[in-house]
# Entry
Amino acid sequence: MTGTPLGTPRGGAPGSPLRVGLIGYGLAGSVFHAPLIAATEGLALDTVVTTRPERRQQARAEHPDVRFAATADALLDRAGDLDLVVIASPNRTHVPLATAALKAGLAVVVDKPIAGTAAEARELAALAEDRGLLLSVFQNRRWDNDFLTLRRLIADGELGEVWRFESRFERWRPRPKGGWRESGDPAEVGGLLYDLGSHVVDQALVLFGPAVEVYAESDVRRDGAAADDDTFIALTHACGVRSHLSVSATTAQLGPRFRVLGSQAGYVKYGLDPQEAALREGRRPGTGAAWGTEPEPLWGRVGSGESPVTGGGRAVATLPGDYPAYYAAVAGALTRQGPNPVTALEAAAALDVLEAARRSAREKVTVTLR
# Structure
């Protein structure tokens, strides 16, 4: 085993915060990772890797004590001063940067998707295990308010035996924004299947376990678009539940975020978790109103019925969303106080499904997973 053992801060006295290097300060780095790292007890944002002057200015304004590095190599050259590297750079860089960081002896968090293929994810998991280092994947949507509420409803038996899980992550963006996320170059690992699809597939697997069959339809709808922007995935889980998952940038009328049908009742929930919007607006956990909460008119409904207005049932209070819990769990894992919140092998299982979905849509077949 190489590197510093878990629970031993490399930079500073015992009990001092674990120092974090963040690679990338675009949307993922500035909106999600940096604020959540800064809000986590036991972690300190030490260095940001970015060369863009405007992003350095933004990072300095938001995190006055942060240092900068021009390249990932420059950051890794002083790996001994850090405890964790967070990779929030474009998808094509995830595997090489995670590999380099692990070989430098550093624990790593990688934004989703961890890799373009399940095989690459498993290779990274093996490397981390060989080096005795934490490798975690940022799947923040496990801490969405609606997902936490649904997990509780299922655990409490409110729905009975779940038969079908419908999950939609839909937007109305009739004109492409451009950039690598919408690139048709396979090396970029772009498109909605790997972007929003990483979330809805991960949630389905967390709720209902492994998938054994995958069917998908994937389209490029918008003029000027080069990557999939309207994709449907149907999963059959080993437990018998069927998941119907939709990700789209072309939805002029949004459907419910969740519709979950069981033997005793159903759960229908509209609207997105408020945490991303709050982070984009500059709000931070622990600095004001209760974090992750939503008003009563947005609560979902549980029950049965045929009302064309409410769908029947009763309103159920949505649990607060809790993105801060991810990095709190990472800090706990690094100090041997808890497990890795999202493992690379879990991410590999989701990538198995995404790869099968891509093949299904291309070949117009149902793919069986083993």
Observations:
- Residues 344-363 form the longest helix (20 residues).
- The radius of gyration is 21 Å.
- The longest strand covers residues 162-170.
- Residues 265 and 314 are 11 Å apart (CA to CA).
